[in-house]
Specification:
about 500 residues, 22 helices, alpha/beta, globular, eight-stranded mixed sheet, six-stranded parallel sheet, 14 strands, Rossmann fold
């Protein structure tokens, strides 16, 4: 066991200089402590000597390696899906990250997935069974755990929720003020930069791709990566920008110093270019991929027979997380209720597949509003062949999201030959290319009318589905996306 470092930079440098092993301990992993150290170059030389490596040295690699770091909400995301780390590593698919892993593998690039989780106490390596990728779980610094606990207790004692911070601060509560400060600074201490980059060096990662460039984790990885001479890229999966004044300078520097951004939406490219004055050559329009050997069109009658769905039923399907606001499921329920009241043909059904943070609220809305014709599979379905059968049994696919970037769910439905009715947000407009109908986000009436229009026109349904499938075949193959990722993020490997 190593010696606990003192709270002074002099003490930390003394420990490093004398080759005293340093644990993933109380504060040394925190980026705040890395700033307090002061002499970055001297510190990095000492750390490299301890780890037996040199900054910027090029080692011989049999295969190029790209690290992919998931965002700060990894633990919460698993909780909302009712998923353990074991299930995540042995069964989880259907996420953008695993699509990227498969795409990179197709072009000879190894991808290593990095996650930060409080469920482990030391770096832990798992094998992702479906793709063969390595998953590295790294614990957060102890200071993060302390701040998280302190914030929770302070909010409880002040009887104020984190969502009502402005109101709580006006209530001149001393505890609320400290809780607010803990809430602001806690994310800066959530990423164990030293442990993370040590594991990346062990895996010989040539570059790091961070989920959500509008995040504190991305800011910190870019700043630390610039010291380590490691290219850090960012991607966009629908996260919302957070413009707290404390964080703006870090974000501006991160955007300036990052190696580049992989963005799956033309509108987002224009937003980033305008807000951060990002050069065009530092951005690449890269969408998610789909395995077309798994998701493909098959006879509707066969799928319905397998699932015991009558042939005469008009079926609309949605699959994904159950998040009322972000996924627009509140709008979907309202639109479906309107459609049921005005649609003349019987046997109209909505199939919802998935679970998430709002599962209980979704269940309550279904019960209170007496929404007819809704069948809900309240679980995260890992069997991709079963997902394909659900999709190919439907007449129309609906996706009323308020914020998704380049949703895998829509691409999977398009690959199965379904016409799409979806919200006009972010990259969804890029995906459809005349393979569906776009409606304004949050507009239940427009969603109702679009669904009615498609359901009442079998010829239109067939044509939209044909276009959707053709577009996916030409643009979203694993090899095509893999080539884009490798060329953009690992140019030395091309």
């Amino acid at each position: 066991m190593g010696t606990r470092p003192s709270a002074s930079s002099k003490g930390v440098l003394s420990l490093v200089a004398n080759n005293v092993p340093i644990r993933n301990d109380f504060w040394i992993e925190s980026p705040v402590s890395c700033i307090l150290i002061g002499n970055h170059s001297r510190y990095l030389r000492h750390m490299d000597r301890i780890q037996g490596m040199s900054v910027g040295a090029e080692g011989s690699r049999a295969q190029p390696v790209l690290g992919i770091l998931l965002n700060e909400w990894f633990d919460g995301w698993l909780d909302t899906l009712g998923m353990s780390l074991d299930v995540f590593s042995h069964q989880m698919m259907g996420s953008w990250v695993f699509n990227y892993v498969e795409a990179l593998h197709e072009v000879g690039v190894k991808a290593v997935i990095y996650c930060v989780s409080t469920q482990v106490t030391c770096p832990t390596r798992l094998h992702h069974s479906p793709t063969g990728a390595t998953i590295v779980i790294v614990p957060p610094p102890r200071i993060y755990r302390v701040l998280r606990l302190a914030k929770t207790r302070l909010f409880e004692r002040a009887h104020v929720s984190e969502e009502s911070l402005p109101h709580g601060l006006r209530a001149n509560s001393f505890r609320t003020l400290w809780a607010a400060l803990a809430s602001v600074f806690k994310p800066y201490c959530s990423t164990p930069l030293i442990s993370l980059f040590r594991e990346m060096q062990r895996d010989e990662c040539g570059s790091l791709l961070v989920q959500e460039y509008e995040s504190i984790r991305f800011d910190l990885c870019v700043l630390w990566g610039s010291l380590r001479r490691t290219p850090v890229y960012g991607t966009f999966t629908g996260g919302r920008p957070f413009s707290h004044w404390i964080r703006r300078p870090f974000r501006t520097l991160a955007m300036r110093w990052c190696a580049g951004l992989a963005i799956g939406a033309r509108r987002e490219v224009e937003r980033v270019k305008g807000r951060y004055r990002m050069p065009s050559d530092k951005m690449a329009l890269i969408y998610s991929s789909v395995d077309q050997s798994i998701y493909y069109a098959s006879p509707k009658e066969e799928s319905r027979k397998t699932l015991a769905i009558p042939d005469h039923v008009k079926l609309v399907v949605y699959h994904g997380r159950i998040e009322l606001s972000f996924k627009g499921l509140d709008v979907l329920l309202e639109a479906w209720k309107q459609l049921q009241q005005s649609y003349l043909k019987p046997d109209l059904r909505l199939l919802v597949i998935g679970t998430g943070s709002d599962a209980e609220e979704f269940k309550r809305l279904l019960a209170e509003n007496h929404v007819p014709g809704v069948h809900w599979v309240n679980e995260w379905v890992h069997d991709r062949d079963l997902i394909r059968r659900y999709l190919t049994s439907a007449d129309v696919y609906v996706f009323p999201s308020r914020g998704d970037a380049c949703p895998n769910a829509v691409i999977e439905a398009m690959a199965c030959g379904l016409p799409i009715v979806a919200s006009d947000v972010n990259g969804i407009a890029d995906l459809l290319d005349r393979g569906g109908i776009l409606v304004p986000p949050g507009n239940a009436h427009a969603l109702t009318e679009a669904l009615r229009h498609v359901l009442d026109n079998p010829a239109l349904t067939h044509e939209l589905g044909r276009r959707a499938q053709g577009f996916v075949r030409s643009r979203f193959s694993t090899r095509a996306v893999g080539e884009q990722l490798r060329t953009f993020m690992l140019p030395a490997a091309t």
